[in-house]
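User: Can you predict the 3D structure for this chain?
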Amino acid sequence: MEGNIHSKELAAYLLNHHSEQLSSIILCPDPRLHYSLYVDFAEIMDDNPALSQFIFAKPTEYLPLFDESAIWAQKVILADLKQCENASIKDNIHVRINISGSPLECPETFPSIGRVRVKHRGILLTIKGTVIRSGAVKMIEGERIYECRRCKHRFKVYPEVETRNSIPKPIFCPSQKSKICESTSFQLVEDNKICHDYQEIKIQESTQVLGVGAIPRSVPVILKDDLVDMVKAGDDVIVTGILTAKWSIDLKDVRCDLDPVLIANHVRRMNELKSEIDIPDDAVLKFKQFWTEFKDIPLKGRNAILQGICPQVFGLFTVKLAVALMLIGGVQHVDASGTKVRGESHLLLVGDPGTGKSQFLKFAAKLSNRSVITTGLGSTSAGLTVTAVKDGGEWMLEAGALVLADGGLCCIDEFDSMREHDRATIHEAMEQQTISVAKAGLVTTLSTRTIVFGATNPKGHYDPEQPLSVNTTLSGPLLSRFDIVLVLLDTKNAVWDAVVSSHILAEAETKNHDCEEDLGTIWPLPMLRRYIQFVKRYFRPVLTKEAEKVISSYYQLQRRSATQNAAHARLMFRNEVTRLDAITAILCIESSMTTSAIVDSMGNALHSNFAENPDQEYAKQERLILERLRLLDEFPEVISTGLSTYG
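Assistant: Here is the predicted structure, written as structure tokens:
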């Protein structure tokens, strides 16, 4: 049956379905470049099921045949484009198979990296992961042409991946003439040397899909020709290719093994999709119905969402609000000169042991679709940013935690355990959202659009009279990178202890009885994840005039900007930053100060609880803040009614 599929049949398929791509390649002026011809596997299955089966089962045989067919198809098209001067046949054309939307996305042919086995060798395999190492682009010899000294037969010899791309010397003459040539003497044809661009990367499976205690596995990937330099460290990729093996480097007293390696045929970057999760239409409908129900009392609706964050921890309203605003984030601003103002907010929890800091870090990592958790004690500057490693006599860059969490969340527990020079390395990553590297002759800049969520213990007994830098041993410049710093002090408070103990004892009873106000069941973890991703994707809030007045007056008073107002507008399912969002942002920022000139009784977020009537409570806080900012005359409706109209 193999003989049924010929190169002309493949060329006919390309002419029927991809003539436009071929025409554009023919009209390209430079014949020395390598060109990609993208073909959907699902389309091949619909048109020619037998061909799709051959490509899947024997890609090493049929993918090169596909490339040759593309050259033949160009000749057919070129006959119709004789009037174009720049039209020419491109010999360096490569058919790239995209398996998206096809049955090859099943677990058997799309396994996780840790489940790749010998049975996957030789088939068209697809794997997904994060690029942790990107090697330099090299030039390798693609083929050699030898000529038999006896019968003058010319034949090609290709490099072997198993022997690290070395080209073996021919043993016998492969001539297919009637009389067998037994010659073992060959001569190299020097004028026909063909070279290819070559790059090795290493991809690692995502830690999000691993269980507790599982070590993320990695596999090297070979990129050739038009695929080189497509990805960099930290990128999420889906790679389709052929699994083979190569001998490990020959080292003294080290056993030589066959290491798996994937020869890539198609690479798809997932950076624009890395933070997106599936949000069905019925979930969006639930969100809209929820806010319709709480239209008149929006803050009660907001608190219902916040109570679903880390529900095992009682109270801590301020912390849960800060975590929600941090995960949702604001809107990035780019001015006319190209200067970017980051939209991500960084959060630091400073608190006594046993105040639930680590619980919030772990829950926030679950809420984020892309997250990395590490501890200060087990992290170095290279582990957080990027490290230079030597592989096969060549220096490569390997991505650290902040680069791997690009577009997501990086949680750093025990922040105070990090050494001072290790903490200094993340200054640029937090503010400029890039990491500049100059190691082992490698000079580059990597993207780190990452939210940093840190937790630290105070140095000894927390002294409210001393500044935060003294209490935490963290430097002032590093503390200034965190937009919100919340202090959790385990002070002796008999009333608070009684409320918490009652809540813990009542949990067992509520499990046995239906509770109408059990908001934790209304907003479970999957629903919260979808809500956060939905508002981040579809809302781009803009400031209203009233919000501008409040923020401007507050900035003049404190000279401290807040990006949390846009995040709160998203949380409230709105595309406008109203006065309500501005006031809430101020409350959140003021909560991170040990003493506040605007809001009374700030400085310890541990005892902040959910108000029974948050809308009435907000009206009191709004009047107080506007009075302190000397803006009460600007909003007469607050004076006349004593209640807010939510801007």
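The first strand starts at residue 35 and ends at 40. The first helix runs from residue 7 to 17.
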